[in-house]
Amino acid sequence: MFQRIALAATILATPAAALAQTEAKAEFALPELPYSVDALEPAISAATMELHHGKHHQAYVDNLNKALAEEGAPTGKSIEELVAAAGTYTPAIRNNAGGHWNHTFFWESMAPADQRGEMSEELSQAITEEFGSVEEFQAAFEKAGAARFGSGWVWLIVNGDNQLEITSTPNQDNPLMDVAETSGTPLLGNDVWEHAYYLTYQNRRPEYLAAWWDVVNWTKVSERFDATQTQ
Ligand SMILES: [Fe+2]
């Protein structure tokens, strides 16, 4: 009799426990790609996109949810809040929160040919003032991306002096983090982890960096720049 009651209690308790677990895991979710996986070909292959979004980004989301649940970190924080205080969390939260924010930003920084638009006059002028020309900016951005040792990101940011600046961060760090060497508001970021390009470009990271301009969503980058100028 007692056994039956205990068994019934276990069965009754299971849905609640499962629900609690589901809630904890669902704190962050993988966003849908804003285009189809083959929309950025040939610069970025469908196979790369499937793996990068469906496996790598998914893993950052899953591992972030897991780390938050396991480490009893405060819940209800936005991804921006977690990133901004990255230095106060464990490496698991810092790396996976960065991975989630960076990749979400990355997908939105690119678009298919008919949706990329053009750089705004204001952004073009600011880039020319800072770097000499758009071409010189692109060359400097590619150089910084190629020079990042190991895995990381290369960024165009608006820094604390309201100037455009190219920076690079290791691993899944970004310029919004309290631990960033150079802080600022990212306008554009390219992922220079091997998983971003290896299937097509193998070890030729500079080739990937050069081809990537073909998929940059200048409409989005210009909007981000505008937002920094109207704050
Ligand atoms: Fe990546």
Automatic annotation (TrEMBL):
Its cofactor is Fe(3+). The keyword Oxidoreductase applies. GO terms for cellular component: cytoplasm. It is an enzyme of class 1 (oxidoreductase). Its EC number is 1.15.1.1. Keywords: Metal-binding, Oxidoreductase, Signal. Residues 120-224 form the Manganese/iron superoxide dismutase C-terminal domain. Residues 1-20 form the signal peptide. Gene3D superfamilies: Fe,Mn superoxide dismutase (SOD) domain, Iron/manganese superoxide dismutase, C-terminal domain. The keyword Oxidoreductase applies. Pfam families: Sod_Fe_C (PF02777), Sod_Fe_N (PF00081). Belongs to the iron/manganese superoxide dismutase family. Destroys superoxide anion radicals which are normally produced within the cells and which are toxic to biological systems. Catalyzes the dismutation of superoxide anion radicals into O2 and H2O2 by successive reduction and oxidation of the transition metal ion at the active site. Destroys radicals which are normally produced within the cells and which are toxic to biological systems. PANTHER family: 37S RIBOSOMAL PROTEIN S26, MITOCHONDRIAL, SMALL RIBOSOMAL SUBUNIT PROTEIN MS42. This is Superoxide dismutase. It comes from Paracoccus laeviglucosivorans.
